[in-house]
Design goal:
CATH topology of chain B: Ubiquitin-like (UB roll)
Helix content of chain A: 25-40%
Largest sheet of chain A: 4 strands, mixed
Oligomer: heterodimer
Order of helices and strands of chain B: EHEHHEEE
CATH class of chain A: Alpha Beta
Largest interface: A-B, 25 and 17 residues
Strand content of chain A: 25-35%
Strand order of the largest sheet of chain A: 1-6-8-2
Shape of chain A: globular
Number of helices of chain B: 3
Number of strands of chain A: 10
CATH architecture of chain A: Alpha-Beta Complex
Radius of gyration of chain A: 16 Å
Mean pLDDT of chain B: 97
Radius of gyration of chain B: 12 Å
Low-confidence stretches of chain A: none
CATH class of chain B: Alpha Beta
Strand order of the largest sheet of chain B: 2-1-5-3-4
Mean pLDDT of chain A: 94
CATH topology of chain A: Aldehyde Oxidoreductase, domain 3
Structural class of chain A: alpha+beta
Shape of chain B: globular
Structural class of chain B: alpha+beta
Number of helices of chain A: 4
Distance between the termini of chain A: 21 Å
Order of helices and strands of chain A: EHEEEEHEEEHEEH
Number of strands of chain B: 5
Helix content of chain B: 25-40%
CATH architecture of chain B: Roll
Number of domains of chain B: 1
Chain lengths: ~160, ~80
């Protein structure tokens, strides 16, 4: 298990290699990477500022990760989230999940993403020609979380 | 009691400060919001639509009914947009 919150960029490949280093019991390794898009609703985005709540961030991410480990049999996981100034094309964050078979790793990665979207204390501000615009939370992000409670805690 | 009140994203911009130390007898988060709203126009504007405001008490997500007994830090922010 692992949670990292950092200003610096990360090497996705190196993180995945490190996650499974010395392990031969992992049969599936899934990763997701979030990137800065160059437009928001048709409006060009020139930069993004990612604000967070330092005293709460790691705690919130660790709790989301622990919840995933309680639901699926995972051999390893990583949540890495950046903050600070970012440019279009930059990596914002990644999650990786490892399990014996692919179903648990796929589902756990999606679960982590759904929870990160609306339960991790980050706020995105996009710079556009009309000035800085705080990214609104989307209703479907809240809906995405709801489907996990409907499915219960049986591991999907 | 003395509370550290923190603001993030557009709440921070509307208040004009990332944090402030507040002396209050508010029993709940809701009472604290009512008190803060009465401070000045910036606070009143920031807290004008509570449907758009989330709160954490001592770094745990909470709500307006939550008691403040023993709390040290209350943070207000818009819905989170991580990922």
């Amino acid at each position: 298990m692992g949670v990292r919150v950092q200003r610096e960029d990360f090497d996705l490949g190196a993180e995945l290699v490190a996650l499974r280093a010395g392990r031969t019991d992992i049969g599936a390794l899934v990763s997701f990477t979030g990137l800065v898009r160059d437009n928001a609703g048709g409006q060009p985005v020139t930069a993004m500022e990612l604000e967070h709540y330092p005293a709460m961030t790691a705690k919130a991410l660790e709790s989301i990760e622990a919840e995933a480990h309680g639901r699926w049999s995972l051999q390893a996981s990583l949540i890495l989230h950046r903050f600070g100034p970012l440019a279009p094309g930059d990596q914002i964050m990644m999650v990786a999940t490892a399990s014996a078979h692919r179903a648990a790793a796929f589902e756990a990665a999606e679960f982590l993403m759904d929870y990160l979207k609306s339960r991790a204390p980050f706020w995105k501000k996009e710079a556009t020609a009309e000035g800085g615009i705080w990214v609104d939370a989307r209703d479907e992000d809240e809906t995405a979380i709801g489907r996990w409670s409907e499915r219960g805690r049986d591991g999907g | 009691m003395k509370l550290d009140v923190l603001y993030f994203a557009w709440l921070r911009e509307r208040i004009g400060e990332p944090s402030e130390r507040v002396e209050t007898d508010a029993a709940t988060v809701g009472d604290l919001v009512t008190e803060l709203r009465g401070r000045d126009e910036r606070h009143a504007l920031a807290f004008s639509d509570m449907a758009a405001v989330r709160v954490a008490v001592d770094q745990e997500l909470s709500d307006l009914d939550a008691p403040l007994d023993g709390a040290r830090e209350v943070a207000f922010f818009p819905p989170m947009t991580g990922g």
